[in-house]
């Protein structure tokens, strides 16, 4: 016996919901009911609790996506499973058409070493602030970067303070004495040793990250690996990722060659040489680089946030490593797992075309303005008229809000958002901020990484 679903909606959306469900030809039966509400987005669970007198034999109730309130309490009241549908009715086929997945993004394999590149010139208090910030954004290890020919008198105190605060710490220098001092002070890792400086590893307990004597000298790296393996020492190998036009492609080949020679060793990639030294948005770079790490089983990266354009690189790398592990475990492409790395564009930016939006317009009987976008531009309409433009300034003379500053301000904000969304190919929803994913200064609008439900799916029930 097929499932029977009760869809609750508003009067304005009822016709459209009927049309969408008819075209879907779903395997379930359904009833559509509007409990005396004109606009579905204004519906609340308290309102439903008061007004819904009959559940029409439903096995499940689907609420409008923007319905506010406690659906758990509502489900208990009616003794039925209740969930919110998609925010846009046009997404309803995807909501039911995809297999229900709950992506657990709490797991990852790649450890992020977040480098404080100028530690000798920074106070201990400031380093602690940065360490907390990096950790909150996903860093597993705080890397203390030394500077060439720069005194570092407070190194020991700094490392000991970080350790007392519970941080895992690495010391990063090409100077042997810096590495020795940092490791003796309690650093957990040393970046970087090579064949001729391996003696330091005999003096301290810190795990060494080893590099070739020269970039192309993989034989020296092999010898260093053999030496440490013979001593049964833990170590990590970094074949060195070079910037674009300064050996980038060859360095990727080098990583693969090292992996082929040593299938089971731990490896590191310094992704900052690409994210910092390429003036392009870093989200895509982090996605691609963490994809390479996933394929080559590279379980450590060194990341930095020095350049302003790379100011969210650690947060991006954190999300990228989780997405890649999820895709790898499912033997799938890294698509439709989490939208946080798609700041500029979206897979379905315009849920309605111009003809459908004009159909909505014919149902409007009040003076409140609705704003929507399609591939044709920005559309604003109420009972007085329907207007389309690609430049919101063209719309202002037609809206007649010169005497209402508050309304003019509101429409200005919403039309500006709509224009940006139309230009970039993003989803615009009136009265909601645009979603910039990891690019946002705040993470309040980002999805919980522990359980992410992509658009068009439902969370599995227990």
Whole-number count of domains: 3
Radius of gyration: 28 Å
CATH first level of the largest domain: Alpha Beta
CATH superfamily membership of the largest domain, which one?
Answer: Dihydropteroate synthase-like
Q: Approximately how much helix is present in the residues?
A: 25-40%
Compute the separation of the termini in Å. Answer: 22 Å
Percent of residues in β-strands: 5-15%
Explain the overall architecture.
This protein has 462 residues and is of the alpha/beta class. It has helices at 11-24, 45-51, 71-78, 92-97, 124-136, 155-164, 176-184, 199-203, 218-230, 248-261, 272-275, 282-296, 313-329, 354-362, 396-399, 405-424; strands at residues 4-8, 29-33, 60-63, 82-84, 111-116, 141-145, 169-172, 189-193, 207-210, 236-237, 266-270, 300-303, 370-374, 377-382, 385-389. α1 (11-24) links the parallel β1 (4-8) and β2 (29-33). The two termini are 22 Å apart.
Write the layout of secondary structure elements.
Layout: E1 4-8, H1 11-24, E2 29-33, H2 45-51, E3 60-63, H3 71-78, E4 82-84, H4 92-97, E5 111-116, H5 124-136, E6 141-145, H6 155-164, E7 169-172, H7 176-184, E8 189-193, H8 199-203, E9 207-210, H9 218-230, E10 236-237, H10 248-261, E11 266-270, H11 272-275, H12 282-296, E12 300-303, H13 313-329, H14 354-362, E13 370-374, E14 377-382, E15 385-389, H15 396-399, H16 405-424
Parallel strand pairs: 1-2, 1-3, 3-4, 5-6, 5-12, 6-7, 7-8, 8-9, 9-10, 10-11, 11-12
Antiparallel strand pairs: 13-14, 14-15
Helix pairs in contact: 5-6, 12-13
């Amino acid at each position: 016996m097929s499932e029977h679903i009760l869809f609750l909606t508003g009067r304005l959306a009822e016709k459209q919901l009927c049309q969408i469900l008819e075209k879907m030809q779903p395997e379930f039966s359904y009833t559509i009911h509007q409990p005396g509400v004109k606009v579905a987005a204004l519906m609340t669970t308290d309102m439903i609790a008061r007004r819904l007198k009959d559940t029409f034999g439903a096995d499940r109730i689907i609420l409008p996506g923007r319905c506010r309130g406690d659906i758990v309490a509502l489900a208990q009241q009616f003794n039925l499973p209740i969930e919110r549908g998609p925010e846009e009715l046009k997404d309803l086929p995807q909501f039911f058409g995809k297999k229900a997945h709950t992506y657990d993004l709490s797991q990852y394999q790649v450890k992020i070493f977040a480098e404080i590149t100028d530690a000798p010139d920074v106070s201990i208090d400031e380093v602690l602030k940065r360490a907390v910030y990096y950790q909150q954004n996903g860093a597993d290890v705080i890397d203390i970067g030394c500077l060439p020919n720069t005194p570092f008198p407070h190194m020991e105190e700094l490392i000991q303070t970080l350790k007392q605060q519970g941080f895992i710490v690495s010391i990063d220098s090409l100077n042997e004495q810096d590495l020795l001092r940092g490791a003796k002070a309690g650093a957990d890792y040393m970046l970087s040793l090579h064949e001729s400086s391996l003696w330091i590893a005999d003096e301290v307990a810190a795990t060494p990250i080893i590099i070739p004597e020269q970039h192309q000298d993989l034989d020296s790296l092999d010898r260093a690996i053999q030496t440490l393996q013979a001593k049964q020492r833990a170590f990590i190998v970094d074949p060195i990722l070079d910037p674009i036009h300064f050996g980038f492609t060859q360095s990727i080949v080098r990583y693969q060659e090292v992996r082929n020679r040593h299938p089971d060793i731990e490896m590191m990639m310094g992704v900052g040489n690409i994210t910092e030294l390429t003036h392009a948005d870093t989200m895509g770079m982090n996605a691609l680089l963490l994809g390479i790490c996933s394929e080559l089983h590279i379980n450590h990266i060194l990341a930095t946030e020095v350049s302003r354009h790379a100011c969210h690189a650690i947060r991006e790398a954190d999300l990228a490593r989780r997405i890649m592990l999820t895709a790898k475990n499912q033997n799938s492409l890294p698509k439709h797992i989490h939208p946080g790395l798609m700041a500029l564009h979206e897979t379905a930016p315009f849920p309605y075309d111009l003809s459908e939006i004009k159909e909505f317009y014919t149902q409007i009987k009040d003076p409140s303005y609705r704003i929507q976008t399609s591939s044709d531009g920005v559309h604003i309409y109420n009972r007085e008229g329907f207007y389309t433009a690609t430049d919101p300034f063209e719309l202002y003379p037609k809206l007649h809000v010169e005497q209402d500053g508050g309304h003019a301000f509101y429409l200005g904000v919403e039309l500006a958002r709509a224009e940006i969304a139309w230009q970039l190919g993003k989803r615009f929803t009136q009265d909601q901020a645009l979603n910039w994913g990891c690019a946002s200064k705040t993470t309040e609008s980002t999805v919980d990484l522990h359980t992410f439900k992509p658009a068009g799916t439902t969370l599995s029930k227990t």
